[in-house]
Design brief:
Blueprint: H1 3-28, E1 34-43, E2 46-61, E3 64-66, E4 69-75, E5 81-83, H2 89-103, E6 107-114, E7 121-123, E8 126-141, E9 144-154, E10 160-162
Antiparallel strand pairs: 1-9, 2-8, 3-7, 4-5, 4-6, 9-10
């Protein structure tokens, strides 16, 4: 090995040792700035079921006024009407046209008409007792996310340290 090669090899060795030493010294001399690291842990809601029952009086029929309604034609302007059950098909068609022609009124065709000759009547209410059962979900604890500390990282050199919880 020539003298130049020996000197060059020595310079490279010193430079490598110096660089390594400076790096180690720089890392060990870091004034650490520890930043906490967290992980998110999700907790589902805690629930249970409850079943309850109750009785209720349920209206099954009645409790209303009613009247007899029949199909027919009725004038919009006066009390004139016909019930279809009283006339044949031809008369059902002609009578409203005749009334409109004679009076100039407008006749509604195929409407339900309360027959004034039939009385209104009241239907008595009828109730039955019914038991109803229902199951509901009760939430004891709502679902939530929890942040857990897992360790720390130095913001300057990147060194990490963990906690026993993480």
């Amino acid at each position: 090995m020539t003298f130049k090669k020996k000197i060059l090899t020595a310079i490279i060795s010193v430079a490598a040792i110096t660089f390594t030493t400076i790096g180690v010294n720089a890392a060990s001399a870091c004034q650490h700035d520890w930043v906490p690291n967290f992980k998110t842990v999700h907790h589902d809601a805690e629930t249970h079921y409850e079943t309850g029952s109750q009785t209720a009086d349920v209206l099954t029929a009645g409790d209303y006024w009613t009247d007899y309604q029949k199909l027919g034609c009725k004038c919009q302007n006066c009390d004139w009407y016909i019930l279809y059950e009283d006339y044949n098909a031809t008369e059902r068609y002609e009578k409203p046209l005749d009334h409109e022609e004679e009076t100039g009124h407008t006749v509604d065709i195929s409407v339900f008409i309360t027959d004034p000759d039939e009385p209104q009547y009241y239907v008595e209410p009828k109730y039955e007792t019914e038991e109803r059962t229902k199951t509901v979900t009760i939430t004891d604890v709502e679902a939530y996310d929890e942040e857990i500390l897992t360790g720390y990282t130095c913001s300057k050199c990147g060194k990490t340290k963990t906690t026993s919880l993480g």
